[in-house]
Amino acid sequence: MYGHNGRVTTHPAPSPTQTDDCRPSLTVSPLSLDDAQDFARIFKAVADPTRLRLVSLVAAHEQQEACVCDLTEPVGLGQPTVSHHLKILVDAGVLHREKRGIWSYYSLEADTLNRLSAFLSPE
Amino acid sequence: MYGHNGRVTTHPAPSPTQTDDCRPSLTVSPLSLDDAQDFARIFKAVADPTRLRLVSLVAAHEQQEACVCDLTEPVGLGQPTVSHHLKILVDAGVLHREKRGIWSYYSLEADTLNRLSAFLSPE
Questions:
Q1: Rounded-to-integer distance, Cα A83 and Cα A19, Å
Q2: B-chain residues within 8 Å CB-CB of A44?
């Protein structure tokens, strides 16, 4: 669902109308089991203090992208551990990974964050 | 929408200014460890398909509140299991519990959902 190919997803960012009309919301009607499992999987990826800090560090980094070498020192963890956390965030569609040369660069998946935010909004 | 009868919370909903100025955001600046731990704790509570369905069932129920007896059948689980999940949601501040007579009634903590939604919004 969140697969990428050179920053192209199969689910383009929705218009506000699409968000209001089609996307599941936690507070509008009872969730289907499929939707509940889908959102629980993404929330599980962000339900960790280190992973939340990694997302915020990527967002605050120059051009809103960072490589693992930029992230190890701020979170005080080694590269293998940070890479493990980043993989979980990429697999959940919260971060996007792009390989350039010998480094992978991570950036936000704004569509996923918008989707989570709209899902939780009680308005 | 959430200020129904008998529903007094200790956390009034913030004004938009408070949300913009004072509350942590995932994408505005690097999160402190305290904020990361605080939000990770709440996300952990909702990172479960059954608990997400329980929240959505409470929201969709008459007057946006429900007792455990209203919730067991829709999720197909026994009362002790449902009560366990509801306790996790109450402890995380996602649901509010109010005892009336022999039953406890659960309703949404709109302030917590607004806080999570604003935290995740990349805009």
A1: 32
A2: 43-44, 47
Instruction: Enter the tokens of residue B3.
Output: 């200020």
pLDDT along chain A (123 residues), means of 10: 38 39 80 94 97 96 93 96 98 96 94 93 75
Q: Residue A97's domain spans which residues?
A: 50-123
d(CA B96, nearest CA chain A) in Å: 15
Specify whether the CB–CB gap between B53 and A31 falls below 8 A: yes
Answer left, alpha or beta for residue A85, where phi above 0 means left and psi between -120 and 50 means alpha: alpha
> B4 lies in a domain?
no
Is A13 near chain B, with CB under 8 Å?
no
What is the helix (H) or strand (E) element at residue A35, kind and residue range?
Answer: helix A33-46
